[in-house]
Amino acid sequence: MINQKRIEERIEALSKISEQNVEWVGVSRRALTDEDREAQALTKSWMEQAGMYVHLDPAGNLIGRKDGLDKGAKPLVIGSHIDSVLNGGKYDGTIGVIGGIEVVQHINEESIEIQRPVEVIAFCEEEGSRFEDGGVFGSRAMTGEIKSEHLDAKDEKGITRRGALERFGLAPNEIFTKGIRREMDLYLEMHIEQGPTLESKGIPIGVISGINGRYFGEMTVEGEANHVGATPMAQRYDALVGASEIVIELEKISYRYGAPAVGTVAKMNVMPGYPNVVPDRVEMSGIDIRDLDNERRDLIVEQLQNKAKEIAQAKGLSVEFNDRLRMSSALCKQHIIDTMEAAAEEMNVSYLNMASGACHDAQFMAELCDMGMIFVRSTGGSHNPQERASIDDIQLGTELLSRTALSYLKY
Ligand code: HGY
Ligand code: MN
Ligand code: MN
Ligand code: MN
Q1: Can you tell me the ipTM of this complex?
Q2: Distance 358 CA to ligand 2 centre (A)
């Protein structure tokens, strides 16, 4: 039986492990921090209680495993993440890891015989909330996409990802020397929706068709510092005006393509930032463009960068681009969607077929094996302290995750 109370207690316990800051009321647990280490230790203890043996791979992924009778079979893997954005919610990522552990605990408690091994992974650094490259790291490293320069990305204190991994007691070079790619037969992830769709339709569960791909990058606009009083408007080279037009342009392009295309600029660093001085440099970071169709996403990036060049030229400014990350979109496998839908119908639970606007570890695992995702209705948005999900909906999602997993674990 899926134990709702245990799930609820574990979500609460993880939410208490958070970096402290007077402005933050939400959960702040960035990758490879002391808080992340503490959360991993607690998660490891739950994995062990569920009868799994647990290890940390060189990229900081926490991996629990329970063997099946068929020793040579590739495992079914259930995963998500326990790191968070700054001042975020307590459900994003955690319900997928806690739910996966609950499935294995259920298998143990009911002495269910499984043929295929099952693994639960809490991936390291799913959120791009600490290092400058906005990277997803742990699950991406498993696909072999991570290169040495990704280890040199710094956080705001100048600590590199390599340094943070080493402080975690890991040897990051083993990512390259030993390789961390794992054999997997199938990957499942349960996650809160983080958007308004299920709530607006009054449906508790989403059966996911695909996950948006993502571009992540920066732009730097340069103009000329000058006197705000003595310089006529027509003789200025105001970098902030140029940057602002680029932001509006991204919104226009995103609307033009319509859902699921989305575009955001997260941050602008305006310099010199003094009163009485016309801004001469704007660093635009967290330029985040997503779509279910990779080509369309790249077209949006290209159109934005062309428009930025036109704006800069017209205003006597210069603009430079820094493309940091491109994550491919991923489709969920039809046989898993069918299995999930059949299980939901058995449970008499209403569900919605939908795509994921948010990105997930699942889209990297889709490069290694067949992938499926379950959404649990959430309210209050996400990546903010108002993020909510009801424990009853989380239980439904976990029950569906369990039934779906068991149909592949027993044969
Ligand atoms: O940004 C995302 O979609 C994920 O929550 N990191
Ligand atoms: Mn997130
Ligand atoms: Mn997440
Ligand atoms: Mn209840």
Answers
A1: 0.90
A2: 7
